[in-house]
Amino acid sequence: MDAEIEQTVRACHKCQVNRHAPPEAPMHPWEWPSNPWSRIHIDYAGPLYGKMFLVCVDAHSKYLDVHVVNSATSANTIEKLRTMFAIHGLPESIVSDNGTPFASQEFQDFVQRNGIKHIRSSPYQPSTNGLAERAVQTFKEGMKKVTEGSIETRMAKFLFTYRLTPHATTAIAPAEMLMGRRPRSLLDLTYPNINSRVQQKQQRQKQSHDKTAQVRNFNVGDRTLIKRTGPVSFVIELNDGRTVKRHQNQIRHKYDQYSDNKLPDISEIPDIPIPVVSDNQADVETPSGSSDTSDNSKSVVKPTVETPRLTRTRKPPNRYGDF
C-alpha cells in the first residue's frame, strides 16, 4: 500500500514540474591550456551605458580584452574578433554561449574558414562558460569604479590596471603571462630602473676590487701574445705551438737577457771558500810568507774590546738638593 502511494506521488506530473531543482553535479573544471591564446572565452556584457561590450578572456593567462559595439550582431562580433586576431593570432578554440551572435550560420562559417573549433555551452547553464561570465562581472564592477572620462577612456583605464595586476589564480600579471614581458607602468617610476641598479652594483664591486689591483697592459706583438679577445682576456701561444685563452691575472711579461751587457753564466764563476768562525772563538792571526817574522814566532791574540753601553744623563729634581 505504501509503495503504491509513493509510486503514484512520484509519477505526478505537476509534482515533478514544481519540485525543487536536484542537487548540483560535481564540478568539472576546464583543462588549463599550456599555451597562451589557445582557447578564448567570449560573451557580451550589457546593455551598459547604452552600449554592448564584447568581452574576451584568454584561458591561459586570464588576459581580458573588451570591445564596444552598438549592437550584438554576428557582423560586429566577427569584426571585433578580426581585430583581436590581428594582434594575438588565431586561437585553437572559442567557447561561447548559445546567443544569437554566436549561433548564426555567418559566425559558424567564419570560425570554420579560420580553422577554429567552436565550443558552445549547455543551454540555460551559464556556468559552463564560467570564465567569460566572471570576466563580464569583473568588467562591470571595474567600469563602475572609474567615473571620469568617456566610455572608451574609462574602459582603457580599467583594462590597463587589470592587465598589470597579478591574477589571483596564476599570481602573474595577465599581460606579462600573455606577452612574455611586463608592460611599463607608473609603478616602475617608483622603483629605480633595474639596469641602473645593476650598473651601480657592478661599479661598487669594481671600485672595491680595484683598490689593490694593478693595471698591466698586453699588446699584440709581445713575446707570446697572439690576439686580445677582450678588455682583460688574451689568446697566447705556448712554446710547443699550442694556443690558449687566459685572463690578464694569469699572464706575466717575459723579459730576455740584455744582449749588450750580458751577465756571465753562474757556472763560470769559481767558488770562493768562506771560513766559518764561531762567536766564542778568538780571532787568531797567523802570518805566512813574511820576511820580518820567523816561523817560530808566537801567535798574537787580539784583545776583546767591550762595546760601551749607552746610558742617559740623570738629573735629580731640586727637592732632593738638601739631602
TrEMBL record:
<dbReference type="GO" id="GO:0003676">
    <property type="term" value="F:nucleic acid binding"/>
</dbReference>
<feature type="compositionally biased region" description="Low complexity">
    <location>
        <begin position="266"/>
        <end position="279"/>
    </location>
</feature>
<feature type="compositionally biased region" description="Low complexity">
    <location>
        <begin position="288"/>
        <end position="302"/>
    </location>
</feature>
<dbReference type="Pfam" id="PF00665">
    <property type="entry name" value="rve"/>
</dbReference>
<dbReference type="InterPro" id="IPR050951">
    <property type="entry name" value="Retrovirus_Pol_polyprotein"/>
</dbReference>
<dbReference type="InterPro" id="IPR036397">
    <property type="entry name" value="RNaseH_sf"/>
</dbReference>
<feature type="region of interest" description="Disordered">
    <location>
        <begin position="246"/>
        <end position="323"/>
    </location>
</feature>
<dbReference type="GO" id="GO:0015074">
    <property type="term" value="P:DNA integration"/>
</dbReference>
<dbReference type="InterPro" id="IPR001584">
    <property type="entry name" value="Integrase_cat-core"/>
</dbReference>
<protein>
    <recommendedName>
        <fullName>Integrase catalytic domain-containing protein</fullName>
    </recommendedName>
</protein>
<feature type="compositionally biased region" description="Basic and acidic residues">
    <location>
        <begin position="253"/>
        <end position="265"/>
    </location>
</feature>
<feature type="domain" description="Integrase catalytic">
    <location>
        <begin position="32"/>
        <end position="191"/>
    </location>
</feature>
<dbReference type="InterPro" id="IPR012337">
    <property type="entry name" value="RNaseH-like_sf"/>
</dbReference>
